[in-house]
Amino acid sequence: MGSPRTEVQSQVQALVQQVFDNAYLAAMKPTIGVAVAVLLLGALSCLLVPANRSAARPAEADVRTADVARIA
């Protein structure tokens, strides 16, 4: 049989481990899930952006250039 101090120390260590397992790790699961969902949503939204936006509207760019030249 160990000394009372050693027994208390081992009980405290076991309690700290239980608190860590039940509180911290349980709270991290939904937090990581939300972070992964946000990253996936961002990645999927990148697929919706047109690949070449400048080629999609060349006439609008010409109008803006003409307006700037006229103002200057």
Word description of this protein:
The protein is mostly helical and 72 residues long. 88% of the residues lie in helices and 0% in strands. It is rod-shaped. The protein starts with a helix and ends with a helix.
Helix content: over 70%
Percent of residues in beta strands:
under 5%
| Number of separate strands | 0
Name the helix and strand elements from N-terminus to C-terminus, one letter apiece. HHH
Let me know the largest β-sheet: none
Low-pLDDT segments, ≥5 res: none
Number of distinct helices: 3
**Structural class, judged by helices and strands?**
mainly alpha
How far is the first residue's CA from the last residue's CA?
A: 93 Å
Task: Tell me the overall shape.
Answer: rod-shaped
What does the radius of gyration come to? 30 Å
* Global mean pLDDT: 81
What characteristics describe this protein?
single chain; 72 residues; mainly alpha; 3 helices; 88% helix
List the helices and strands and how they pair.
Elements: H1 4-48, H2 53-56, H3 58-71
Quickly describe the structure.
Helices cover 88% and strands 0% of the residues. The chain is mainly α and 72 residues long.
